Amino acid sequence: MTTLHERLPSRSLYALLIAVSAGSALLGFVREASIGALHGASRGTDAYYAALTIPFTAAYFLVGGALAPALTAALARHFAMGDRDAAGALFARSLRSFVLAGGFSAVTLAFLAPHAARFIVPGFDAAGIVLTGRLLRILVLYGALTSLGQLVTAGLIAAGAYRTAPLAVLAGNAVSLLVLLLPSGRASIESAAWAMNAGSAVFLIGLLPRAFSLGLLAQRPLASARVPWREAATLTLSLCAAGGVDLAERPFASTAGVGAIALLAFASKLIHLPMRLFAAPLASVVLPRFARSRVRPPGPSDEAGETASWVLRFLLYAAVLTAGAAAPLAALAFGRGHFDAAAVAALGRVLALLSPAIVFIGFIELASKLLVASDRVRAVAWAQGAGLLAYLVAAPALRAQGVTGLAIARDIAWGVAALGLALPLLRPHTSLRPFRRFGTSVLAACVTLPVAVLAVHLPVSRSNLLACVAAGGLSAAAFSLILMGGPLMARIRNGQRP
Questions:
Q1: Is the preceding peptide bond at 396 cis, omega within 30 degrees of 0?
Q2: Are residues 139 and 193 in contact, defined by beta-carbon separation less than 8 angstroms?
Q3: Which of 121-125, 131-135, 422-426, 439-443 is modeled with the greatest confidence?
Q4: How far apart are CA 398 and CA 409, in angstroms?
Q5: CA distance 41 to 346
Q6: What is the mean pLDDT of residues 159-172?
Q7: Burial class (CB in 10 A: 0-12, 13-18, 19+), 462
Q8: Distance between CA atoms of 292 and 77, rounded to whole angstroms?
Q9: Band of the pLDDT at 206, cuts 50, 70, 90?
Q10: pLDDT tier for residue 309 given thresholds of 50, 70 and 90
Q11: CA distance 317 to 432
């Protein structure tokens, strides 16, 4: 009998995942733009994003990025061997361990929030530090609920329920935006924190029915079920290094002027969009399938490499478009309300500088998953550690240039980490080939960049939306023509019809 996890993913599944991720990202951007419109690049917005650093890092780096991938790979191997009881027992034990450890950590962080705030933003005045501590205490709930949701998502993906988590994220983002916009009159920055809490609660609740129906929450934890703590601990070290870049950036940015933290946070939201649209949803399918292939060959190793290759092409194009249309993109996404023209111009500069990081971030998301499934988690840790070291060297040297210097330091850190992850995949004997036709893709990106820049300045582009559409359409056409030109010419030379 064919079980859920054995069905081959179809193109319609990939299309659905990308579409749902796009909807979630759109709602998330509307929420971030609303925060910018309501509060501008102010000290309150700085405090909000500074306070969000620790809960976000815990949820998406330590749990979603460390424990969840290792658990997904382990569960997928049990499913591949047909041992659903062992998979359920492993998931139950992991869930119980997380509830105990995560609950204690959340309570401790809430108690120590004022002291943590002094560490995160030493450059703030006393009122700013107090506000950061108060927001951090509110956002602890967001971190705990989102972390639990990431763990349940790991079990669902391993079982083959690929659609549930993206739909739950979509519902959570919709609710958080609704809660943010509900208050009448002048909303306080605390309302943004409570909106995040509401969204995380809806996200978790949306996962539970499917988890119950698959039996993931019906098993008892068994002592014989080995939780992949060693792999998770190695990934935790790697993601602590990645999160360390975020934490290290806050003290530097807190002395770079009012609004520096907010500008870096807003730009980061924009450059993470292609990763969320392409790399993350496709990696969520490739990870369990590639892990199962190591237990029950032949598996989808070629599928994984081909998927990675196409993701890289999408990321290269997204980076080119972002660099060429940075100014209108910044204005279109955030140019309203209290986010004035000076802030929009500064955001455009930061966004253009960070555009190469689109490729780095997306590749890190995908390559780390493939290396985890290949039992090479140490390579991930070394790469992220090298990225943190690069930032700690670059940021002090570039902080005199203000927020632009810190953006360049970010590029350097993410670029070094991506290079560290690429090296193990370049080994001749590896079954993964994510860099197929990569040289042609880079050439297409280089040619497309001036096309995108020129398209932004077309006479017809009298608004930000038209400028972005023109840049996107013309640059996409140029990118596609160059990318498809090689195979087309080969077919013509061979006397085949194109």
A1: no
A2: yes
A3: 131-135
A4: 7
A5: 11
A6: 89
A7: exposed
A8: 5
A9: very high
A10: confident
A11: 22
**Could you tell me the two tokens for 202?**
């809806």
Say which amino acid occupies 12: S
pLDDT for 466 beyond 90? no
Q: What letter represents residue 364's amino acid?
A: I
Task: Please check whether residue 461 is in contact with residue 455, taking contact to mean a CB–CB distance below 8 angstroms.
Answer: yes
Token output for 278: 């392409």
Segment 336-342 long-range contacts (CB within 8 Å, at least 24 positions apart): 336/33, 336/36, 336/37, 337/36, 337/37, 337/38, 337/40, 338/36, 338/37, 338/38, 338/39, 338/40, 338/42, 339/36, 339/37, 339/40, 339/41, 340/40
> Do residues 409 and 395 make contact, with C-beta atoms less than 8 angstroms apart?
yes
In angstroms, the CA 151 to CA 378 distance is: 22
Identify the pLDDT of residue 214: 82
Cβ atoms of 333 and 395 within 8 Å: the answer is: no
Mean pLDDT over all residues of the chain? 80
| Global pTM exceeds 0.90 | no
Tokens of 68: 């969840």
d(CA 444, CA 440): 6
* CA pair distance 354, 326, nearest whole angstrom: 10
Closest listed residue to residue 269, CA positions, set 173, 340, 190, 135: 173
Which pLDDT belongs to residue 146? 93
Matching residue, tokens 């995942």: 17
The pLDDT value recorded for residue 498 is 45
